[in-house]
């Protein structure tokens, strides 16, 4: 049995994990405890708001709706990765879900498919609503996903969860039949759980740079603009990016294949739009580390390949990797794609968005 953390302890845990936090109105005493129990708690649940805009989303999650009083979660995570605290105690976020899933969360075992709605989850889960339309098109920025990972890791660490598994953090879609959140390009619960598990192996607030320094990552954002790339069959092809975001505006540049320079640790999300695929044809995407050798750059290693299957002749694919680019031999990270069709295909647009920590 896990007793819920006090408001002060929740806040301390989040800040210790390097989360940027904003306290909204009277969040410390804002709850639905009058409607039922709060606790024992067993895990963290991730949602999307089906809204846009930080201010409106935060107020909605604080006040609720006419048919569902607030708070609708404990924290709202905006697109920039800031967590806005809107409640402490019981919140209307989880609803009824599968009791077998709750048992798996408690035991930290593999999650079963959610088939029934027989158990109230509101007493048992901390909830984070994330600002996203939930239409499958609205992207999840790397900063937002990183904040989800850190917020979940903070609460798991504070409770001592995650020692025998990483299923103490789940998505709403894994709890209640019919739910789809979190959904959209750049987010997946399997990726979030892997990254939470990795953080829990480090000390609180860890980053690959000095723990005494600011733990927040730097951002790298590259994109193609009126620049296409032909991908011939059976050949790994490096994508070139011809503009980058300098923190205030987009800057055009000569086509550049590298999206990160070492030494650094990184979490990189890559989005690709491609046309010319045959129905059912795979399109492979990966990031690869290159090193300088005899004045030329050669591939040193590649991360696991994601192979989405196209079903309409074109696709928009988004995947995320986490890794390390060493300083040795001027290491750098590049994006590669491949397919095995009979005809060339065209990458019409691509974006590589990374959070990185100089090593």
From TrEMBL:
Single GO molecular function: N-acetylmuramoyl-L-alanine amidase activity
Please spell out the taxonomic lineage of the organism that makes this protein. Bacteria, Bacillati, Actinomycetota, Actinomycetes, Kitasatosporales
Which organism does this record belong to?
Streptomyces xiamenensis
Please state every residue range assigned to the domain named N-acetylmuramoyl-L-alanine amidase: 27-183
Which InterPro entries has this protein been placed in?
Amidase/PGRP_sf, Amidase_domain
Q: Name one GO biological process term.
A: peptidoglycan catabolic process
Name of the protein: Peptidoglycan-binding domain 1 protein
Residues of the region (Disordered) are 200-219
Q: Which SMART domains match?
A: Ami_2 (SM00644)
* One Pfam family linked to the record: Amidase_2
């Amino acid at each position: 049995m896990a007793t819920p953390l006090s408001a002060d302890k929740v806040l301390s845990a989040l800040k210790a994990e390097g989360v940027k936090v904003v306290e909204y109105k009277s969040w410390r005493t804002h709850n639905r405890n009058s409607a039922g129990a709060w606790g024992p708690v067993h895990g963290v649940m991730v949602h999307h708001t089906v809204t846009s805009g930080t201010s409106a989303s935060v107020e909605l999650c604080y006040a609720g709706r006419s048919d569902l009083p607030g708070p609708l979660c404990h924290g709202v995570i905006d697109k920039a990765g800031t967590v806005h605290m809107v409640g402490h105690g019981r919140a209307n976020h989880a609803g009824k879900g599968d009791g077998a899933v709750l048992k798996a969360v408690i035991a930290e075992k593999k999650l079963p498919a959610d088939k029934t709605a027989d158990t109230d989850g509101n007493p048992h889960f901390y909830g984070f609503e994330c600002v996203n339309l939930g239409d499958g098109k609205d992207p999840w920025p790397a900063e937002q996903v990183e904040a989800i990972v850190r917020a979940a890791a903070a609460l798991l660490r504070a409770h001592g969860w995650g020692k025998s598994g990483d299923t103490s953090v789940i998505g709403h879609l894994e709890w209640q039949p019919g739910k789809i959140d979190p959904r959209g390009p750049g987010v997946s619960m399997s990726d979030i759980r892997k990254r939470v598990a990795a953080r829990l192996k480090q000390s609180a607030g860890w980053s690959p740079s000095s723990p005494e320094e600011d733990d927040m990552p730097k951002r790298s954002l590259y994109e193609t603009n009126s620049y296409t790339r032909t991908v011939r069959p059976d050949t790994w092809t490096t994508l070139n990016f011809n503009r980058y975001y300098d923190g205030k505006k987009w800057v055009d540049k000569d086509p550049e294949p590298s999206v990160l320079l070492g030494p650094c640790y990184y979490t990189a999300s890559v989005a690709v739009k491609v046309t010319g695929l045959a129905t059912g044809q795979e399109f492979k995407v990966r990031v690869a580390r290159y090193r300088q050798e005899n004045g030329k750059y050669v591939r040193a290693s590649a991360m696991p390949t994601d192979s989405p299957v196209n079903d309409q002749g074109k696709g928009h694919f988004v995947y995320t990797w986490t890794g390390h680019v060493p300083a040795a031999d001027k290491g750098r990270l590049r994006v590669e794609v491949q397919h095995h069709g009979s005809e060339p295909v065209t990458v019409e647009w691509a974006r590589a968005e990374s959070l990185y920590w100089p090593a």
